[in-house]
Specification:
The protein has 148 residues and is α/β, with parallel strands linked by helices. The chain has five helices and seven strands. It has helices at residues 2-10, 49-66, 83-93, 108-116, 136-142; strands spanning 28-33, 36-41, 45-46, 70-74, 80-81, 100-104, 131-133. Strand 1 (28-33) and strand 2 form a beta hairpin. The longest helix has 18 residues, at 49-66. The N and C termini lie far apart (48 Å).
């Protein structure tokens, strides 16, 4: 019981929502919006190998369970992504069923890292593995267009 309370206190985000983190449950939320599977990452940092490995496995399981071809990753809570986090997203993008993957609500420093690594479209990169949208609403609106 004390451990559960400690986990809740340690995971309390600034705006009051409580997310319980355990070794077996990565902090993601999934929902289907039209033809898109929206995966919201609830972690502030994606730098721990164990956590990111479990996160990647949970995301892949959700994609396969929903037979989703369009994935929207909402990163509104994430402030830091290490190289292991990029690998998790790339491995998800490489699943045969995934046709499009749209990242949204990127913090400026995360958007810069994705751009530097040429993982999102920019002035110099047209063909990138991920698409990007400023908001979840815009990401879902992009899904109304043709699949790539």
């Amino acid at each position: 019981m004390a451990t559960e309370i400690w986990n809740i206190l340690q995971s309390r985000p600034a705006h009051g929502e409580v997310t319980v983190r355990t070794a077996d449950t990565p902090s993601i939320r999934t929902e289907t919006c039209g033809a898109a599977l929206v995966i919201t990452i609830l972690e502030e940092q994606l730098r721990d190998v164990s956590l990111v490995s479990k996160l990647q496995a949970a995301m892949a399981e959700a994609v396969k369970k929903q037979s989703a071809t369009v994935i929207v990753i909402d990163l509104h809570r994430t402030l830091f992504i290490g190289s292991i986090g990029f690998l998790a997203f790339l491995s998800l993008r490489r699943l045969p069923e995934v046709k499009r993957m749209i990242l949204c609500n990127l913090a400026p420093q995360i958007r810069d890292l994705f751009e530097i690594c040429k993982l999102i479209p920019s002035e110099s990169v047209i063909d990138a593995p991920f698409e990007v949208a400023n908001t979840l609403s815009l990401a879902l609106a992009m899904n109304a267009g043709p699949e790539q």
